[in-house]
Design goal:
With 690 residues, the chain is an alpha+beta fold. It contains 25 helices and 19 strands.
């Protein structure tokens, strides 16, 4: 520890000397001066957090400090930020600019580390900045030029190699074992003090402060209802999946700043189950691939375009040496932590939604993987998921996700309160009612050889999806009757399709997938695999195809259809129509508002051998397809590490029909309404809209 303190002191002292030195090439002077100012600000924050001042600072002062940390990448400033590949390329050159922007991205990862008082993780990034700066000063002194860009890439690549195992170990400890004690203490205080939001280091906007105000005003019975719904869903997920919760110990709670009071209630319930709740961090760094969705405790996204621009920064440095070191580092980290990772129970996830859908612009200077690097990336994703599954014993872990809105979903606080209550009602619907209605559906689907799904009103969907056929329909089921356990709210039946013979076109006029908007999305399937795709996000068709390839196929050449489902939560659909928030709904709720299809792995990936049963006692048999069946013979080809749901809203649906071997057709949905006998009650919320 003394060595770390010494290195840190030397690094910060050296960084303080940079402004005014004029030792680098003229075009880069401002870059390094601003970089030095950045680390001086981070050091200032560290000193503040470890002093008495942090306990007494006013909200106004804390807000000012928070803004200062993020102002560089806010939309109004991003056009002139060195973290922007476009600006960096314009000022520093098209070859050097993206590399220096990637370095800036890595430097910004110091924020969560300083707020967790992880000085060594701040230190290594400060030393990286100094090493690059030194290369520039030497080149300037020796020949009046900048160093070769390959030299700068090599410095950053070596940094990623040298610290791979340490960073992976810290990352896994945070995610799978115990999180951070300082942040846990702050979010657990429960005083409702807005000051605490700023003391976590997350970006704080009106969304966070106003949601905290609303949640702190809720009567205790509503807080208890929310917490009980979530944690009971988590408990039931183990019971339904035939898993032993008693064999697990650690369970992270992932949630948005402002929802601390709900977290506290959930944490208490988890403790009663014998679990240790903790709070992991949300960190964006070159050491980890770009990740969609919630990764830990998080505040507002200061600028989704910034994150999107840096999603493939690793392309600047990824070669065979780094490929090997990344996998070695991850493997060694899992080995070091094995005794504790097996105790991981899985996360309780309190997601939020409400922000305006994001449709990114394409930066011509943002790094892109080459075809060879795409293969390296896919290999890393698959192998890392295999290591993860082995380390936590994936077949014995579970999770639960629930969603609530943020204030930005409404134009007034009273309307936000109204929408919040509507979503609370959606999230706490009667499981027993849906169980009965959905059993009627699964009984009919159990007799079908395939289903046919067609769109209407401009929706071009025309699909035939083959089904697993039970050998004993009285004791086996090909669809799971899904109530509120893993995915809250209640409301779907789903299956793993048979790939051979599954074919046709899936089309939606617009859909919001993992925080990204897709306009006029169309995917063509043959033998259950994606064979073609298009969207209308960009005028250039090739750019639109690349958008899908990167964010739906995740650089795979094709993906199988991993899921077919019918969403039955018409209450959620009605709320979306009433409040005009369909484009704000997260996939967790949106998938319950119509038939949906997933591309990628099945819902049962790595749990295919677990025996699972529907509430009526029938064993679920459609858990694998022709791809995941390779897990025992060719495991490298069995999984893709992704699963993306795409929903057809009721109003775009002409029919969802079960077809038997003898040609008999049993409509389940027709013209956006449930027509199967015994399911008509689901039309109530739809009728109320009229």
């Amino acid at each position: 520890m003394e060595l770390i303190e010494l290195r840190y002191s030397l690094a910060i002292d050296r960084i303080r000397e940079i402004p005014g030195e004029n030792a680098a090439a003229p075009a880069f002077l401002q870059y390094f001066e601003k970089g030095a100012e950045w680390f001086m600000l981070i050091d200032e924050v560290y000193c503040f957090l470890t002093s008495k001042e942090a306990e007494t600072a006013s909200v106004a002062d804390l807000r000012k400090q928070n803004r200062k940390l993020y102002e560089d990448i806010l939309p109004e400033n991003y056009a002139f930020s060195y973290s922007n590949p476009e600006y960096a390329a314009a000022i520093l050159g098209e070859e050097a600019g993206p590399v220096m922007a990637a370095l800036w991205y890595e430097m910004r990862s110091a924020i969560p580390f300083v707020y967790r008082l992880q000085k060594e993780r701040v230190l290594i990034r400060a030393e990286l900045f100094l090493e690059v700066y030194t290369a520039f000063t030497i080149a300037m002194r020796e020949n009046g030029q900048i160093p070769p860009v390959e030299q700068i890439k090599s410095i950053i690549r070596q940094f990623l190699c040298d610290y791979s195992e340490d960073e992976m170990t810290a990352y896994l400890r945070d995610k799978l074992i115990d999180g951070d004690s300082r942040i846990m203490r702050i979010v657990s205080e429960g005083s409702g003090d807005i000051r605490n939001l700023y003391l976590t280091g997350e970006y704080v906007t009106d969304d966070e402060t106003e949601s905290a105000v609303l949640i702190n005003r809720l009567p205790q019975e509503k807080i208890t209802l929310i917490a009980d719904t979530v944690t009971e869903g988590f408990r039931r997920s183990f019971l339904i999946g035939g898993k032993n919760l008693a064999s697990k110990k650690n369970s992270p709670v992932l949630f948005h700043a402002g929802f601390e009071r709900i977290f506290i209630a959930c944490a208490e319930n988890l403790k009663k189950m014998g679990l240790n709740p903790y709070v992991p961090a949300e960190v964006h760094t070159l050491f980890h691939s770009y990740q969609h969705g919630l990764m830990g405790y998080n505040g507002a996204d200061p600028n989704p375009q910034y994150t999107y621009d840096h999603r493939e920064d690793l392309a600047l440095f990824l070669d065979e040496q780094l490929r090997v070191k990344r996998l070695e580092g991850l493997s060694n980290a899992y080995k070091r932590l094995r005794e504790k990772t097996v105790l991981y129970a899985g996360p309780v996830i309190l997601e939020t939604f409400g922000s305006k859908p994001f449709m990114p612009s394409e930066s011509k200077n943002a790094p892109r993987y080459t075809d060879a690097q795409k293969q390296m990336h896919n290999e890393y994703e698959i192998r890392s998921y295999d290591m993860y599954s082995d380390a936590i014993v994936a077949k014995d872990r579970s999770f639960t996700i629930i969603d609530f809105p943020l204030p930005s979903i409404a134009d007034s606080f009273p309307l936000y309160h109204e929408i919040f209550d509507a979503v609370l009602s959606i999230n706490t619907l009667d499981n027993a009612l849906f169980e009965r209605v959905q059993t009627r559906m699964t009984d009919v689907l159990n007799t079908a050889s395939h289903v046919e799904v067609k769109g209407r009103g401009g929706n071009r969907t025309d699909l035939k999806v083959n089904l697993v056929r039970p050998s004993d329909p009285d004791s086996e089921a090909n669809f799971e009757n899904c109530t509120a356990d893993i995915n809250i709210p209640v409301g779907e039946v789903f299956t793993t399709p048979v790939l051979k013979g599954t074919e046709g076109v899936l089309h939606v006029s617009g859909v919001y997938l993992e925080g990204l908007y897709f306009k006029d999305l169309e995917i063509t399937f043959r033998d259950g695999r994606v064979r073609d795709y298009r969207c209308a996000n960009f005028e250039d068709e090739l750019v639109s195809r690349r958008y899908i390839e990167e964010n739906v196929l995740f650089h795979h050449k094709d993906l199988p259809m991993g899921e077919l489902a019918i969403g039955t939560n018409t209450t959620a659909y009605a709320a979306a129509v009433k409040y005009g928030i369909f484009d704000r709904f997260p996939i967790l709720i949106a998938e319950k508002t119509g038939p949906h299809f997933a591309v990628g792995d099945t819902c049962y990936g790595r749990r295919e051998d677990n025996r699972m049963y529907n509430p009526d006692g029938k064993e679920i048999i459609a858990k694998e397809n022709e791809v995941s069946a390779l897990r025992n013979t060719d495991p490298d080809k069995a999984y893709y590490g992704c699963h993306t749901d795409i929903t057809i809203p009721y109003e775009e649906l002409a029919e969802f029909t079960a077809v038997r071997d003898d040609g008999a057709r049993i409509p389940i949905l027709k013209d956006g309404r449930f027509v199967l006998e015994g399911t008509e009650i689901l039309n109530g919320p739809l009728d109320a809209l009229k």
